[in-house]
Structure formats: structure tokens, C-alpha cells
Amino acid sequence: MRPEVLNPLFASADSLKGVGPKLEKPLEKLGLTRVKDFAYHLPDRFIDRRVVANLDDAGIGENVIVPLTPTQYRASRSGRGPFNVMATDDIGNVVSLTYFGRASYTAKKQLPLNERRWVAGKLDQYGDALQIVHPDHVSEEGGAAFGATCEPVYALSDGLTQGRLQALIEQALGELPELPEWIEPGQLAKREWPAWRDALLLSHKGAHKAARDRLAYDELFASALALMLVRADNRRRKGVPLKGDRHLRDKLRLPFDLTGAQKRSVGEIEGDMAQQHPMLRLLQGDVGSGKTAVALHAMLIAVEGGAQAALLAPTEILARQHYETLVEMARGTGVEIAILTGRDKGRARESILMGLLDGGIDIIVGTHAIFQETVNYRNLGLVVIDEQHRFGVGQRLMLQQKAKGTAHCLAMTATPIPRTLTLAQYGEMEVSRLDEMPPGRKPIDTRVIATERMDDVVAGLQRHVAEGKQAYWVCPMVREHETEDIAAAEERFDALRQVLGENAVTLVHGQLRPEIKDANMARFASGEVAVLVATTVIEVGVNVPNASLMVIEQAERFGLAQLHQLRGRVGRGAEKSVCLLLRGNTLSETGRERLALMRETQDGFRLAEEDLRLRGGGEILGTRQSGEQAFVVATPEQIAELLEVAHDDARVLMERDGGLTGSRGEAARTALYLFERDYGVQLLRGG
Ligand code: ADP
Ligand code: MG
């Protein structure tokens, strides 16, 4: 149960005065649906006003508060132009207070003629005349009665004004309870952070770094604590230790030796699986680093130990590819491998379900379908989740629970995540890193080319295809509208078919029916079609070694991590590969720097770190892509600065300071509920 003290914060937005049906949409757009959302809608910036005695003291463009006396109203004759209130300051300077729209009524009421008023606004010059357009505030009295000289400016949506939103936030701030302190007293004192309520109030009043940092820390702390609860809960669970005797692995005849990093990872996994409590391990390895071989070893350990293993892929295409790879690699081991996706129906499906139930199938590869209720296992001992970043923490836990909460779990991701963020996203897991590429990889020749040279690029593609080689062509990304992405892809598809021939090009995008998408993909994978035109949906992990050219249109629109993923599609065969990054004409400084970086390095981890530096890491926080935003309050800078501290503090609380019992533990519980770390909270409920 949520602590009662938080109830006013979770009251819905319409409990605030002035929120009716008309505001619902605009508020929802900003994510403001509950009182607490308003309190946490922190200002983007502040307008700093200076109180001046008269306009001689004010600079043009400056935000000021100045006493003025209205002398005359001037409406335009048509009634459609601006309404002007002419006024003088105390030493006779004339200024016009200009109102557009239907504001004359309000203006007259606020600014009666010949009565001195304090006016706040930005002083401008219009021709020779001084002007203040739409004064922000007008008051009879100056000084303290006038209110803040430092005014917050909030992010808005259509249908909202600053004044309106300010008033609502003001109301919400009035509802803030005092909350018990969850931050360790020493930490709080050392950093001179205000208490929770004060921190929120101060954050709306001015640029208070300490206050903002505290609020960010709270969020990071709650998150770290939730992950730690998951971890602790996991340690309490009794799993089945799986010890492999190598009899299957010894029969493996892979065409290569494992790299040092692969061996180390397999060793770590083997160690985990031999433990009582279920493994929770993340295998992080760049595209092409050889995660599949590691997964296969893990699954064979499970089978050697008498259990079944499941490999979960995010899409049908990936599931099929994994299936084929695994069957090929495991040939000669006698291990029974099957595939199950949502599209398997009838007899075939029945026989697979039977095999899972009676243990005839050792390894199952598939999509979510493998965890449907109707699917029962004889003895599922290991779940491998590929492309983990597609699944948020919540989903991950759900999957594990489907495996009765006792199966060992190996998550794999090709998304290189900076170290700091790994902790944020995967804090509950142990991490193995494949930081070494299999030998013999040729670097991908990456070039940045202006879009105007499209003809040259197409000619190059033509030559490439004429040599019997394949290519990917990734279409521009129009950020807001998926339909526009698709339109662009279809256009490019048509254009390339004109040049290369009807049967030389195929198309994949998100709105194609799955079976068509798969069929098109399959024609490309089999080599039947030379060029694959795609929106960014080309699946991470798709493996077509004969494809040695990657063209990416409007590359500047993609994040570094994404470019890196895309480029990773090529460079998988014996052939030297090329990646062409086509850039538009208007390239920002950052854009230029990012493309240059792509040319310079192929190290995914380095690119991830740089991406974090250059653009704040929003993209790499993979959970955002899956719709589960990791952090709302903390900025990337604050994450970098405070995450480890928050993590350590959470650990100390759990391991030394009495966990969630005791008064600080009680407070920490409140923080979990406040930040809706549901997965942690659910475990609290469970006991
Ligand atoms: P990832 O899933 O990490 O992107 P894959 O598992 O698909 O990478 O492996 C990429 C390619 O590298 C595959 O063709 C695989 O056979 C090959 N490979 C994996 N490990 C090695 C190794 N140790 N030596 C040489 N080739 C390897
Ligand atoms: Mg893979």
C-alpha cells in the first residue's frame, strides 16, 4: 500500500482548481496527470528581472520592474491593430505598453489612467519609441508585494499559457506534504542539500543547483533501490543449480576458437548457473562480437545439467535466424532444437508443445510465443533473452516469473552502454562484457558524402551489385512521422528498381504485413535479391555476410548508437565492407562531430561514451525506446555525477543500515512509491 502521506501527490490533475476538460489534453501532453507531476514539472529557465527606478536605468532588451503612470489609451481605428497604453516613468520617459488581441479590457482595468502602477516586462525599442509588449505583471504595489523578481519559465503545450501553468504548479506546490528523509544524514549534510519539500519549492524559485541535484538524486536512489530489491529477492529464490559435465560441449565442432572474452563470459555464466539462486546476468557485446556462440554454450550447460533452455528473440526474423545458426552450430551434439513463434499453428505447434512438455525438445528458440500460458515446459532451466534493450526491467521480470522465477536468466544486448548507464539500467544484474572482437574482422571503410552526390552513390551501388555483392540502403529518418519514413523508403525503393531492375531490390518497413516483411527479408538473406531498402526496422542481429555495402541517407538524423548498429550489418563476410553516410547540407557542429567520429572509430563502447557526451545519452537509455523512460527528473549530467553515489547509498542502506525496516527504511519505501518503481514495490508487497 502506498504510504498515506503521498496520497495528495497522487490525486488526479482535475483536483486542482481551474483544471477542466479543456485543459486535460494540453496537460496530458506534458505528462501532467497527477498533482505530483506538476510539482516535478521543473522550470526550463528563469526570467531574472531587475527593479529599476526609471527607464534611464534599464537597458533595451532587459527584463525590468518599473513604476509607470498611464497617460493615454490608443486603440487602432479598425480595432484589429494593437491596443497601446501610453505611460510615463517618474522622470518623464514615455513608453508604450502594447497589447495584441482582445486584451484592451484587461489592460484598461489593470492600468487606469493617471494612477501609478508597477509594471514587469521586457523593455524593447520600436522605431524610436520605448515599448513593453504584453507586460508580464502589473501591480499597485512594488517590492515584496509584487512577488518574485525571478520567474520560472515552463515547457508548455498548445492550449496552455505560462500564467495558467504557473498558477497550477503553484497550487500543486501548496499541496506538498513533508516527507520523512530517506537520504543518509551524512550525505545530506556534506552536500548541503535541502529537505525534499524545500528542494521542490526552491527548484521552482530559481536556479538552485543543490535543490535540483537532490531531486535528481532521489530519483536515482529510488531506482537503484528498486533494482537492489530485485537482486535481493533473486538471491532468496531457490533455483536449480545446473552443472554441465561437458559431454555436449565436447561434441561441438565450431569453425573457430572462442575469443578470450567469449571464454571468460562462458566461465562467468557457468559459475552463476552452478549456484543455488537463479542467474541474472547481462552479456554486453557489440554487434558481431559473437554473443550467439556464448548463448549456445550456456544453453548446452543447461541441457548437460538435465534442463531445457529457451532463447527469446524480439522478432520473428531474428528468431528464425537464431534457430538456423544454432541448428548449424550444434550439429553433431544430438541436441534437439525447435522454433516456436506466434505464426506456428495447428499440428506443427501441437507437436512442439508436446516436445516441450515431455522433454523431447532441449532448446526452444522463439518470440514471446514461447512464454504463452499454453506453453508448458518439462524443466525449463535457462532463459536467454536476446536484444535485451527491447525489453524494460518490468518485462524482464515478468519473463523470469513465467519461468516460475527459478530459471537462470541470461540477457544479451548489442547496445553499447556507457558504464554509468549500465548501472542505471541493469543494476540488478551481473555484467559480462565481450570487449574483444573475433579475429580477422576487416575494418569497415566509412565515408561521409554530401547528398548532392546521390548519382555517384547510385552508380557505385550499381557497380557493387554488378560484382554479385549485396547492399543495404537505409532511408532517411523523419523524426516525428513514421508514415513519412515509409513514404521516403518506398520512393527510394522505386527509384533504385528503375536503375537496378525490378528483381534486384526489395523493401522492408514497419507497416508491411509481418509475413511479407519476412519474405522480403528472406529473399535478401538468401542472396536472391541484391539490395534491401529499409527504414530503421532492419533488425539488429540480422546476418547477411555477402552484404558489404551500407548506405545511410540523412545520417546526421540518426544517433551514434543507431548508426553504429546499422553499420554493424556489414563487415560480416570475407569481403571488405563500405559504409556511406549521406549527409544533408545543413549540418550542426555536433552533427559534424558525430559523423566524423563514425569515420574514426568502430568501437561501440567508445561511440556510446561520446554520444553521451555530445547529446546527452537520451538515445542510449534504451528503455526510452521501449516506452519506459528510465529517468524523468535526472538529466544526463546529473546521472553521470550522482548515479554511483545513489547506488552506493542504496547498497549501504540495504546491507548495513537495516534495509527497509527502521525509520530510514520506512522513508526509503516512501521514495520507492513516490517514484513508482513498481517492480521494486511489487516485491515489497510480496513480502
Ligand atoms: P552478435 O550476436 O554478438 O552480434 P554473432 O553471434 O552473430 O554476433 O557473431 C557474429 C559472427 O562472428 C558470426 O558469423 C559468428 O559465427 C562469428 N564468430 C563468433 N565467434 C567467433 C570467434 N571466436 N571467432 C571467429 N568468428 C566468430
Ligand atoms: Mg546477435
TrEMBL record:
Presence of keyword Hydrolase: yes
Residue span, Helicase ATP-binding domain: 272-434
Gene name in the database record: recG
Gene Ontology molecular function: any one: DNA binding
Protein name: ATP-dependent DNA helicase RecG
Listed NCBIfam families: PRK10917.1-2
Residue ranges annotated for the Helicase C-terminal domain, each copy included: 453-613
A biological-process GO annotation: DNA repair
Domain of life: Bacteria
InterPro entries: DEAD/DEAH_box_helicase_dom (IPR011545), Helicase_ATP-bd (IPR014001), Helicase_C-like (IPR001650), NA-bd_OB-fold (IPR012340), P-loop_NTPase (IPR027417), RecG/Mfd (IPR047112), RecG_wedge (IPR033454)
Signal sequence bounds: none
Keywords: ATP-binding, DNA damage, DNA repair, DNA-binding, Helicase, Hydrolase, Nucleotide-binding
PANTHER family: ATP-DEPENDENT DNA HELICASE HOMOLOG RECG, CHLOROPLASTIC (PTHR47964:SF1)
Pfam families membership: DEAD, Helicase_C, RecG_wedge
